[in-house]
Amino acid sequence: MTQTQPVETIPTPRPAPVAVPTAGQPYEYRRAPLVEPDWTRFPGWRHITRDQWESAQWQRVNCVKNIKQLRAVLGDTVDETFYADLEADQKALATMSMLVPPQMLNTMVPHQPMSTEALLADPIRRYMIPVASDRRTDWPSHPYASRDSLHEHDMWVAEGLTHRYPTKVLAELLSTCPQYCGHCTRMDLVGNSTPAVDKLKLTLKPVDRYDAHITYLKAHPGVRDVVVSGGDVANVPWRNLESYLMRLLEIETIRDIRLATKALMGLPQHWLQPDVVEGLERVARTAARRGVNLAIHTHVNHAQSLTPLVAKAAQTALDVGVRDVRNQGVLMRGVNATSADLLDLCFALQGEAGILPYYFYMCDMIPNAEHWRVPVWHAQQLQHDIMGYLPGYATPRIVCDVPFVGKRWVHMLTDYDRERGISYWTKNYRTSIESADLEALNKRYAYYDPIDTLPEAGQAWWLAHRDD
Predict the structure, then answer these.
(1) What is the pLDDT of residues 12-41, one digit of tens each?
(2) Is the pTM of this model over 0.90?
(3) Residue 330 CB contacts under 8 Å (≥ 6 apart), including other chains
(4) Phi, psi at residue 21, to the nearest 5°?
(5) pLDDT digit string (tens) for 403-456?
(6) HSE (CB half, 13 Å, CA atoms) of 431?
(7) What residue ranges in 231-271 does DSSP mark as E strands?
(8) Closest to 419 (Cα-Cα) out of 383, 460, 378, 447
(9) Is the peptide bond before 231 cis (omega within 30 degrees of 0)?
(10) Is the Cβ–Cβ distance between 235 and 177 less than 8 Å?
């Protein structure tokens, strides 16, 4: 019997798949675990051990305070044009003296070879070590800029105690920090005098200043919230700071205490010292027992600043009982004023370092800061563009700190002249210097965009009124 051979079938050709274009997202999240940059890449730190690096004392002793010390660290990795640029700024324009902990310097140009071009472009360098070529020459300062742009000194009710909001005060315990930021809003008081700024001085002994604060707070039960700042509380000897905090906790009407310290990021080694950790635990335990919310507020402006040591310091504070560690950054051109930069930072803060993104302030109207400031409309756009990516509780508010008004979400203005860059704001409370001003709540208060961001007609108007 002849078997039937199978018939070979030829598959019907199928049309080639057509690629369907996808629009993608304006921002694509990519997890980026924190990394401690290798400090031995710097010629001046080639032989520094991990034990030295993680010592708060070593960090403080080896802070960079001048060009000579910076040159010793960087060696010949940058050329003389950079140092000349820096010297020009220090001699005529800088409102803050140079003070950069090794921890912060190590986060500059962290993942590529150091060079003049790379250092000039670095976002941390741009606000920690400003150079003359960074600053604007047409409008280095806004005509309405002032060295105490928020009038905090005018609102002192005791030396270093600003009563600006009805239920909150700012306690400036001292006038120094472990690091000096070029954009510092308290540049009239904090740090050493510079050729551009002769600083104010605290005159009372610390014990007398602290006594005056406590006396005022006991006499004003309407104050429930104290921001303990400076300067930076990391520069207060721990024994003195703990004593001050325990005295605050004895005042029944105080329900919130916030410790303001950029050093959690700039000098995390301080907050990891055993005596500081143990003392913070004592304060946190007392606060919890008395029903007081104790939080730490730090100041991180770029994701590069976040390293495993910073995350360890934040987690340690939480482990010993601090309720929250929150971040208050500042919007600055050339540093973080893009939605991608802000989202990268917020994901690193919230997801990698355990720090809650809380506020981003518009850079204040201080002298020689126009190259950093952004206009209100830009801040509004950034707030729009970062929504929807982060968890709601970790989505920061972008705020404008309006002189005589206080913090306002950037969409809360009542009127806005975009051509001249003048926004108008209202408020719902009186500061401590307006108790007799019956019209304080009926006024409109002005805030000003940087002039170089205005349309030509607006820039021409300001030029014509420059000397008014």
Answers:
(1) 666 666 666 778 999 999 999 999 999 999
(2) yes
(3) 183, 299, 301, 360, 361, 362, 363
(4) -65, 140
(5) 999 999 999 999 999 999 999 999 999 998 998 999 999 999 999 999 999 999
(6) 22
(7) 256-260
(8) 460
(9) yes
(10) yes
